[in-house]
């Protein structure tokens, strides 16, 4: 065997060891890299969860006192529309013919102080904090025309602008609402618009648990508060 042959033979184990080490290093790099990717993906990928009322929703993990701007805006918008859109004419689908409605019925409303608010307004009121809800609904009852409960008057809150939520504290935000409260009287198709411009103060809360055999009242409160938010103050929008 020549010197060159012996040299090549002696180098074979070295190449094998070096190749093995290189493959091991590459394997570790790939494992670590894909592990990070999996963790990132799993942290951002929505998970399907079952809610207390039996429905399902896709969720993204967030801190207990954090809410996304979209969630805050949706909550504020639907709550204010629910509070300020007054309509006592209730329509019920005909069980025998789902393409038709039964004869409309009038909402008797809910007594709040000396006046009444519509049932829809009272329902939306559960999205308000307990130390704010009674006072706000009492004032709202004073503003609700009595003709609402005879079906002659209706209102509709038309949102023109809802600003980006601004964080003002730990789990607290404020949001500006620019809207018109349109009052329709005596069946007239053209309503009377009243500016309704407010700053809404919102805070994160623990989502309430819904008991297995929940009452209608418990279910109503749960639906208004299941976003994990409540409105604790409403004030005039500064010009």
Radius of gyration: 30 Å
Whole-Å distance between the termini? Answer: 98 Å
Apparent shape: globular
CATH topology of the largest domain: Nuclear Transport Factor 2, Chain: A
Separate helix tally: 5
Structural class: alpha+beta
Count of the separate structural domains = 2
Number of strands: 13
Proportion in helices = 25-40%
Named CATH architecture of the largest domain: Roll
Q: What is the averaged pLDDT score?
A: 78
- Most strands sheet: 5 strands, antiparallel
In percent, how much strand structure appears in the residues? 25-35%
Order of helices and strands: HEEHEEEEEEHHEEEEHE
Q: Would you identify the regions where 5 or more consecutive residues have pLDDT less than 50? A: 2-9, 29-38, 40-44
| CATH uppermost class of the largest domain | Alpha Beta
Per CATH, the superfamily of the largest domain is: VirB8 protein
Question: What do these coordinates show?
Answer:
By secondary structure, this protein is an alpha+beta fold. The protein has two domains: 43 residues; 172 residues, VirB8 protein (Nuclear Transport Factor 2, Chain: A, Roll), CATH 3.10.450. It has five helices and 13 strands. Strands 9, 10, 11, 12 and 13 form a five-stranded antiparallel beta sheet that branches. It is globular. It starts with a helix and ends with a strand.
């Amino acid at each position: 065997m020549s010197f060159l042959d012996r040299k090549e033979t002696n180098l074979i184990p070295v190449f094998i060891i070096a190749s093995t080490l290189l493959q091991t290093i590459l394997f570790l790099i790939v494992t670590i890299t894909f592990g990070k990717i999996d963790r990132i993906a799993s942290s951002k990928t929505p998970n399907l969860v079952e809610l207390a009322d039996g429905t399902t929703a896709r969720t993204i993990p967030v801190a207990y006192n954090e809410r996304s701007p979209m969630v805050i805006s949706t909550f504020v918008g639907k709550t204010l529309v629910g509070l300020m859109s007054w309509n006592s004419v209730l329509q019920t689908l005909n069980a025998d013919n789902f393409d038709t409605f039964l004869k409309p019925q009038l909402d008797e409303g809910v007594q709040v102080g000396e006046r009444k608010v519509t049932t829809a307004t009272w329902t939306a009121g559960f999205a308000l904090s307990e130390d704010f809800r009674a006072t706000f609904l009492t004032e709202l009852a004073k503003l609700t025309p009595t003709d609402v409960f005879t079906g002659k008057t209706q209102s509709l809150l038309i949102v023109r602008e809802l600003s980006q939520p601004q964080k003002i504290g730990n789990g607290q935000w404020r949001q500006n609402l620019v809207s018109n409260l349109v009052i329709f009287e005596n069946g007239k198709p053209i309503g009377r618009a009243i500016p309704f411009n407010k700053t809404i103060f919102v805070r994160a809360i623990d989502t309430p648990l819904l008991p297995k055999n929940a009452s209608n009242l418990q279910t109503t409160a749960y639906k208004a508060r299941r976003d994990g938010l409540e409105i604790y103050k409403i004030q005039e929008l500064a010009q």
